[in-house]
Amino acid sequence: MQLICPAGNLPSLKAAVDEGADAVYLGFKDDTNARNFAGLNFNDRTLEQGIQYAQQRGRQIYIALNTYPQPNGWPRWQQAVDCAAQLNVDALIAADIGVLDYASSTYPDLPLHLSVQGSATNYEALTFYHERFGVQRAVLPRVLSMSQVAHVTENSPLKIEVFGFGSLCVMVEGRCLLSSYAAGQSPNTHGCCSPAAEVRYSETPQGLETRLGSVLVDRVGAGETTGYPTICKGRYEANGNTYYAMEEPTSLNTLDLLPQLQAAGVAAIKIEGRQRSPAYVKQVTRVWRAALDACKNDPGAYAPRPEWMAALGSVSEGQQTTLGAYHRNWQ
Amino acid sequence: MNSTTSTPRISLGPNQYYWSHDDLKQFYDSIAESPVDIVYLGETVCSKRRTFRFDDWIATAEKLTEAGKEVVLSSMALLEAESELKMLRRICKNALFMVEANDMAAVQFLSAAKLPFVTGPTVNIYNARTLRVLAEAGLVRWVAPVELSREALKAVLAEVPAGVETEVFAYGRLPLAMSARCYTARAHNLPKDDCQYRCLDYPDGLTLRTKEGEAFLAINGIQTQSAQTQNLFAEMEDIKSLGIEVVRISPQSHHTVNVIKAFRRAIDGDAVDVDALQEMMPVGPCDGYWHGRPGMQIG
Known about the structure:
The complex is a heterodimer of chains A (331) and B (299).
Chain A: E1 2-6, H1 10-18, E2 23-26, H2 44-56, E3 60-65, H3 74-86, E4 91-94, H4 97-106, E5 112-114, H5 123-133, E6 137-139, H6 146-155, E7 159-167, H7 178-183, H8 187-190, E8 199-204, E9 207-212, E10 215-220, E11 235-238, E12 241-244, E13 251-253, H9 258-264, E14 268-271, H10 278-297, H11 306-313, E15 321-322
Parallel strand pairs in A: 1-2, 1-14, 2-3, 3-4, 4-5, 5-6, 6-7, 7-14, 13-15
Antiparallel strand pairs in A: 7-13, 8-9, 9-10, 11-12
Helix pairs in contact in A: 1-2, 1-10
Chain B: E1 9-12, H1 21-32, E2 38-41, H2 54-66, E3 70-74, H3 82-92, E4 98-101, H4 104-112, E5 117-119, H5 128-137, E6 139-143, H6 150-157, E7 165-178, H7 183-187, E8 206-209, E9 215-220, E10 223-231, H8 236-241, E11 246-249, H9 256-268, H10 274-279, E12 285-286
Parallel strand pairs in B: 1-2, 1-11, 2-3, 3-4, 4-5, 5-6, 6-7, 7-11, 10-12
Antiparallel strand pairs in B: 7-10, 8-9, 9-10
Helix pairs in contact in B: 3-4
């Protein structure tokens, strides 16, 4: 299995390559990708340097162009496809059918991956993208159980990549509008979940409040910690109880499942976190490289080492990790 | 170019909630008598909801057809298990009714079978090029994603392929997200595989409030909806001028026929009691998406 690592800037890209990533994925500095945050991502110059750095060392670069252009933005997305093709990137990761259509008809030799934002959770959907646009690989949303991942992988005409580690979307990616409902911008339309300009932290007599737009996402008392406010990780009241109605703030960590993912024929493991620091990328890439090598060499004897789990735990959101949906043994 | 003023038809979207067999039967009996033009039938949210089986849906579809309604069979939005794909194929292979695809699996299946289809709001169509590709695959009507603004929709409509109709989600709690988890089961501290069908207790979803008491979202099994009811009622003249062919009303447990009647009057240019319409909503109205603002806003 390949290790696919995130980079939001050049130091992160270099850290990922140095620590053993097989491929690094990144995006341009605008809303054409799903990690559109200020100070993040690549311009033409840094991208060229990054591609050179990776390719000279035998690693690959994938460009994420994984948001959904609306008519007024279409020329920019088209330009971004042109730019990626001219820079000879190793793959374009896209979600929008129009973008995939443009890329496959204009650059038939440019390898295409279906982004997790493409929201394909079954092999019939994957077949559509493979037959129409020649998509070679797809990243599965983080909602499938291990047996469902294996079933999709077995029946799919293209290669499968799954998320192994990082922040956890509990909603099906590409079909979550919670951010735009509260704050006008979503991953689909603007490449961001919880736009930073709409996030507010304020100390009040009742505690520290976090808001997205006008919505109170959570309020924490002394001794409690709070993360970046995304709607799905807020605390709300239903039937008289106030609780994490959707998701507790934890991170995904599938180190335990590596032998099963390998046996299922999964082609690549993706690490989330283009918005995270070079130190995070370095730490996480190092652990996952070691784990993937150990699993490849002797899957029967493989077990996650305590120091790996500790290293990943220390960079996880909420300092807790979960197997997410993968551990479900029910539908 | 779609520039002519239209007289939109009214559609009733698929019921997003879980109701008892008797309630569903009674509901669609009343719909047969209502001034609605198109009815979408079927389970779109959770494959465990089976008070109406496939044959019940087909029988209902036949009754509504006899009553003069156009019937479309809706399919699931989140397909994970092989059993769900199997049911999808069964729906797609029905020889009588057109199908609403709510996932690309259905698009793939219907286009391979060379059958015309509708796409629901969870199929991501944000631009004309996407619309063109899907039109070539057999698309004859699309429901715009609910977060698409009026301005973006207008720009897409300027290039809408010939033979493709446009439908907007005009009234109802908005479908905002889906998950592998069941939030209704979670609200009852039950695992999803032993949910005890608690969705039956919430015929309009379970409202979530923020810590300051603001009604914000509604949970409906694996689906998250808006607490507010999107209402494009006031935009009817604009909808007509944009040439939009169909306005969708999403079922709720009470007043749906009255909502349909109100929209019928508005389309016909008759006076309507807007306050009465607001009182029919579980919480209150919103229309922010249409105006290019956060969806929960109003005005």
